[in-house]
Design brief:
The protein is mainly α. It has six helices and three strands. A three-stranded antiparallel β-sheet has the order 1-3-2. A hairpin with a 7-residue loop joins strand 2 (87-91) and strand 3 (99-103). Helix 1 (3-37) packs across helix 5, helix 2 (41-51) packs across helix 5 (105-130) and helix 3 packs across helix 4. The protein is globular, with a radius of gyration of 18 Å. The relative contact order is 0.14.
């Protein structure tokens, strides 16, 4: 195996490790959010993304990017959340073709209730990862990231 092959294998191993950490965290979040708030991780991600916007709204495309979803998956998710009364769609005043999504008061309330559950499940999953030699460096790296101002 040459140097280039070694570099590819190192990157591939890094990616597998990252995917394992993501899977561990995602499963822990999914269990906790579903059990306690009847929310999926992606639904929580959408509510959280909307809550972080000035005016608490986003265009559908932005929302899809924030949740890493295709346009059709974003539409289906927004439909479900709208049916539950957690968000609404609003036509853009400047561009009638543009559609925004906004949190409703019920969406804001559910997010406030779910955030401590999310944060506790995330912390627990990271502690679990820190106990695994193969995941510990990545978990440590997450703890070392700077915290943005205002958080």
């Amino acid at each position: 195996m040459g140097i280039a092959d070694d570099a590819v294998e190192i990157r591939a191993q890094g990616w597998r490790t990252l995917a394992a950490l993501h899977g561990l965290i995602d499963a822990a979040l999914e269990r906790a959010l579903q059990q306690q708030h009847e929310l999926s991780v992606v639904e929580y991600t959408v509510l959280d993304a909307l809550s972080r916007q000035d005016g608490w709204h986003m265009r559908m495309q932005q929302l899809g990017r924030a949740a890493a979803l295709s346009a059709s998956a974003t539409t289906r998710l927004v439909n479900r959340l709208e049916d539950r009364g957690l968000l609404v769609r609003v036509l853009c005043q400047d561009d009638r073709r543009g559609i925004y999504t906004e949190l409703t008061p019920a969406g804001q309330a559910l997010l406030r209730e779910a955030r401590p559950t999310h944060d506790a499940a995330l912390e627990s999953a990271l502690q679990q990862a820190e106990a695994m030699p193969e995941l510990k460096p990545l978990a440590d790296a997450l703890h070392a990231l700077p915290v943005p101002a205002g958080v």
